[in-house]
Amino acid sequence: MRSKLFVPGSRPELFPKALASAADALSFDLEDAVQESHKAEARRLVGHALRSPEFSVSPKILIVRVNSLASPHFEADLAAIIGPRVDLINLPKVDSAADIRQAAQALSRLETELRLPRAIGIMANIETPRGLRLAAEIATADPRMTGLQLALGDLFEPLGIDRTDAAAVHQMQLAVRLAAGEAGLWACDAAYGAIKDSAGFRAEALAAKRLGYIGKSCIHPSQIAAANDIFLPDEAEVAFARRVVAAATQAQAGAFTVDGRMIDAPFLKRAHALVAIAHQFTPPAS
Q1: What confidence score (pLDDT) does residue 284 get?
Q2: Conformational region of residue 192, where left means phi above 0, alpha means psi within -120 to 50, and beta covers everything else
Q3: Is the domain of 222 the same as that of 245?
Q4: Which helix (H) or strand (E) holds 131?
Q5: In whole angstroms, what is the distance from residue 89 CA to residue 83 CA?
Q6: Same domain, yes or no: 242 and 118
Q7: What is the pLDDT of residues 12-55, one digit of tens each?
Q8: Same domain membership, residue 143 and residue 73
Q9: Best label site of 16, 85, 134, 150, fewest CB within 10 Å?
């Protein structure tokens, strides 16, 4: 999931454009992007779209950011949008492991009622000071947990932290990535609000890639290409990873060398992951 495009749930005219985009994942937003008076209509529109033939056959990862558990909309959001084509629920304002367990129970009830063939995953937003402090507990709260989403706007703005402070951003990126890693989950990087600042978007995405993030949220289609490019391993990375994997089959010990570098279990695991990512996004030979 190199790129995850936010799609306002109250803007159905954008749904076909998002589906036709190069984004790996679409995240329909029922929360911040939708005015209070339009919440009911937005959930109806998103539910209808997710059940349409066009979305049913799409290979994209389909996500819905519902309203928070503390809102009056959470249960209604789930009831409107849950179906076989929803891959992940993005849960905002998560403050504790109990929030995840409560959401998981609500999902289980609906999945049973609808006889869905598979469980829907949860991606939790880390966007409050308490949520950041308890991020590892949140990540390990339930088997449905799939990944963590860093959300800097809600985290920084109430505290007066400068969103353009690269050092502050880096610290949050690292903290959330380590919390996700404790649970064996991936982490997706925050959205970058300055749409016309392509250089800033690339710099922040590159920093996230160096920390092991799988991709970045996009709030505009113009950001998709950069995210897809940055989070795809480059040819040199993939070539080295393939040499590591090949050398592992010949190795007679737990540690060995490739190109003068010592390789042991963590490096081999990373090499396998890079090869898998490259295979996933490499077009088949014609």
Answers
A1: 52
A2: beta
A3: no
A4: helix 129-133
A5: 11
A6: no
A7: 999 999 999 999 999 999 999 999 999 999 999 999 999 999 99
A8: yes
A9: 16
What torsion do the CA atoms of 77, 192, 125, 112 make, to the nearest 10 degrees? 40
Mean pLDDT of the chain: 92
Total of domains in the chain: 2
User: How many beta carbons lie within 10 A of that of residue 138, not counting itself?
Assistant: 29
Give the pLDDT band (50/70/90) at residue 286.
Answer: very low
- 124 in Cβ contact with 91 (< 8 Å): yes
Supply the range of the domain harboring residue 249.
235-281
Element (H, E) at 148: strand 145-150
Render 213-269 in DSSP notation, one character per residue.
--EEEESSGGGHHHHHHHTSPPHHHHHHHHHHHHHHHH-SSS-EEETTEEE-HHHHH
C-alpha dihedral over 269, 274, 276, 282, to 10 degrees?
A: -170
Q: Kindly state whether residues 190 and 257 are assigned to the same domain.
A: no
Q: Are residues 240 and 210 in the same domain?
A: no
**C-alpha span between 4 and 25 (Å, rounded):** 5
What's the whole-model pTM score?
0.86
Contact by Cβ (8 Å): 222, 201: no
Do 155 and 168 form a contact (C-beta atoms < 8 A)? no
Rounded CA-CA distance 131/94 in Å is 6
- Give dist(CA 128, CA 172) in Å, integer: 11
- 286 lies in some domain: no
Any idea what the Cα angle at residue 137 is, between residues 135 and 141, rounded to 5°? Answer: 120
> What SS3 class is residue 180?
helix
221 is a domain residue: yes
Residues 252 and 151 in one domain: no
Question: 165 in helix, strand or coil?
Answer: coil
Structure tokens belonging to residue 194: 């300055």
Summarised one tens digit per residue, pLDDT across range 202-243 is 999 999 999 999 999 999 999 999 999 999 877 777 777 778
